[in-house]
Write a structure and sequence with these properties.
The complex is a heterodimer.
Chain A: E1 19-26, H1 32-44, E2 48-59, E3 62-70, H2 92-102, E4 107-113, H3 121-127, E5 144-148, H4 155-164, E6 169-173, H5 180-195, E7 203-207, H6 213-219, E8 223-225, H7 231-246
Parallel strand pairs in A: 4-5, 4-6, 6-7, 7-8
Antiparallel strand pairs in A: 1-3, 2-3
Chain B: E1 2-5, H1 12-25, E2 30-34, E3 37-38, E4 53-55, E5 60-64, E6 74-85, E7 88-97, E8 99-101, E9 103-104, H2 109-121, E10 126-130, E11 147-152, H3 159-173, H4 180-191, E12 196-199, E13 203-206, H5 216-223, E14 228-230, H6 237-246, E15 255-258, H7 268-276, E16 280-283, E17 289-295, H8 302-310, E18 315-316
Parallel strand pairs in B: 1-11, 2-5, 2-10, 11-17, 14-15, 15-16, 17-18
Antiparallel strand pairs in B: 3-9, 4-8, 5-7, 6-7, 12-13, 12-14
Helix pairs in contact in B: 3-8, 5-6, 6-7
The chains are: A alpha/beta, B alpha/beta.
Chain lengths: 247, 328
């Protein structure tokens, strides 16, 4: 039976059964009262056939739950719109060749985890020589001169370094949370580049697990790469966008 | 005209929508764009519902191509600009039938200004630029001729802090001009992308540096006894702290001269110490700040307190009255 894409529901045992597994923590001590509270919470969310299949005492009056439930609603998949990047994907050799032919010199890319952020995993995956999941990082590209400044770099240092190296591209990695601090750090970088007269000379890209292109645009960046991004995706975007700008 | 805010949920889009509605009521055709990304139904960070942007027929909009298909308004494509974003080039469109739109303008202030002019060429009598988060860049006179500042309870936990933060930004944006001789020195230095110093008897001297970032010690030593310090770029905490450190209490601090108030990125607490110690700011171009809007949240007296603190600048609570400012 083909899936009806106008009415998509979670799938468990049979198509359209709405089965979901949910896990969460409540700030109450473990026990039967906690399990009932967890169940009632999920029912209040509109979920049906709720069963708490696991609870674990987290200590200090917190309990972790795993529940199964049925989702009574569906989503019209055909009406979901996600803006896509308009550049095409190119592999390692094609990208290097593209830069050689269309730009004629290596592009300078400066990357950093800014502010108090010490999560370098994402930036390293994109920039490091050895790369990630079989794709070599930006440092391996002969036509990219990549500088990884590491973690906890202040915006001021990053902008000074970008000026000194005459950067074409700045890559900023941030774990954006709902707390404002990371976002404000990202917007401050934009304001600083504008004040320094560098914004128009630099392709400004942010990355991190919660970052999307739409969020990047809201923050004032040219692009934003989220979880699961591989180095060639970033490299092909840089090559094509810089070729457009330098044309 | 730019709408800028001091934080998320300060009421930028509400102020923006008020401008759009009032212009439509007066029969004025406007052009609309955004410094960030506006008009989406749910906030991208907090997942809270947001005000939509409803546009009347004949409005001109400038937005990234990929956002067009999310509009409920019927649109006629006018022009594809050369400004590119991850969501496609910035395009100009005319609204044929009213409805909602999403707006994502170009990434840089230079491009934003060019797009605003292009919308005027297509017949917009006024262009309104919605803000993004806490970004103030579009309030710079090179981008907009006038600015509305949105503030409110989301700026800081307590009302006194909200007022202090708002006053800080108002003071930066509307700082006075330097004396004509200093202004001339600063203009020359800024055109050369150089830092410059001025002393009433010694005259002017330039630095070899284009920027004060990451080298405040050098700036301080070159400055000597200068009465005016002209910075073409950003004024950050490290520079202000270096100046405070170099001049013990009692010694006079220089007047910092910048192109516009948006160049001061020092945090309010550090900047406040500079002012307390006798330092001051002068700008070559000050922002024409028309009004402040307030989203008071749970603080029922915030609006009135702000109106008193910022007097004679008019302060509006748009949910109460979008035509008359709050009484002082």
């Amino acid at each position: 039976m083909p899936t009806d894409l106008t009415q998509v529901r979670p799938y468990g045992d049979t198509l359209g059964d709405g089965a979901m597994q949910i896990s969460f923590t409540l700030p109450v001590p473990s026990g039967p009262q906690a399990a009932e509270a967890a169940k009632q919470l999920l029912q209040k969310m509109g979920l049906q056939a709720v069963s708490i299949v696991h609870q674990a005492d987290m200590g200090e009056g917190f309990t972790f739950f795993v529940a199964y439930a049925k989702c009574p609603i569906s989503i019209d998949y055909t009406s979901v719109r996600v803006p896509q990047v308009t550049t095409t994907y190119m592999d390692f050799d094609t990208t290097n060749d593209f830069i050689r032919r269309h730009i004629g010199r290596p592009l300078v890319v400066v990357g950093a985890c800014t502010g108090d952020d010490a999560h370098t995993v994402g930036l390293d995956a994109i920039m490091n020589m050895k790369g990630y999941a079989g794709s070599p990082g930006l440092e391996r590209y002969p036509m990219l001169r990549a500088y990884n400044l590491g973690s906890q770099v202040q915006n001021e240092e990053l902008v000074a370094k970008a000026r000194e190296l005459k950067a074409d591209v700045i890559l900023v990695s941030q774990v954006v949370t709902q707390k404002d601090v990371h976002v404000l750090n990202l917007t401050q970088l934009v304001e600083m580049l504008e004040a320094e007269g560098l914004r128009d000379k630099i392709l400004l890209i942010c990355g991190g697990p919660r970052i999307t292109h739409e969020l990047a645009l809201e923050l004032g960046y040219d692009a934003g790469f989220g979880a699961g991004t591989l180095p060639p995706q970033v490299a092909s975007f840089i090559a094509q966008e810089m070729a457009k700008r330098l044309r | 005209m730019a709408v800028v805010g001091l934080a998320k949920n300060a009421g930028k889009t509400v102020a923006f929508n008020t401008l759009v509605r009032q212009a439509a009521g007066a029969g004025i055709r406007v052009g609309l764009t955004s410094l960030g990304y506006d008009g989406e139904s749910v906030d991208r960070l907090t997942r809270q519902p947001k005000p939509r942007i409803y546009v009347p027929a004949e409005t001109i909009i400038a937005t990234a191509a990929a956002t067009l298909e999310r509009a409920s308004a019927s649109l006629e494509l006018l022009n594809i600009t050369r400004h590119n974003t991850a969501l496609g080039p910035t395009v100009l469109a005319r609204v044929r039938e009213s409805g909602t739109v999403e707006l994502a303008g170009p990434g840089s202030l230079t491009a934003l200004q060019q797009v605003a002019v292009a919308m005027q060429d297509w017949g917009a009598a006024y262009v309104f630029i919605d803000g993004a988060l806490d970004r103030l860049g579009s309030a710079a006179p090179r981008v907009s001729q006038a600015t509305i500042l949105a503030t409110g309870a989301s700026v800081a936990p307590d009302p006194a802090q909200v007022i202090a933060r708002t006053r800080h930004t108002v003071t930066l944006l509307t700082a006075p001009s330097p004396p004509p001789m200093v202004a001339a020195v600063a203009q020359t230095a800024f055109a050369d992308e150089r830092i410059a110093y001025w002393h009433p008897e010694k005259g002017a001297w330039q630095s070899a540096q284009p920027s004060a970032l990451a080298q405040p010690a050098q700036i301080v030593s070159e400055m000597g006894e200068a009465s005016h310090l002209c910075i073409p770029g950003a004024v950050t905490n490290s520079l202000v702290q270096a100046l405070l450190h170099a001049k013990p209490t009692g010694e006079s601090l220089p007047v910092i001269v910048v192109p516009t108030g948006t160049h001061v990125l020092a945090t309010p607490s550090v900047w406040h110490r500079y002012l307390e110690r006798g330092g001051s700011l002068a700008v070559l171009q000050s922002t024409k700040l028309l009004a402040v809007t307030v989203n008071p949240g749970q603080h029922s007296h915030l609006g009135q307190a702000l109106a008193q603190a910022l007097h004679p600048l008019p302060v509006y609570d748009l949910f109460l009255d979008d035509k008359t400012p709050l009484p002082v």
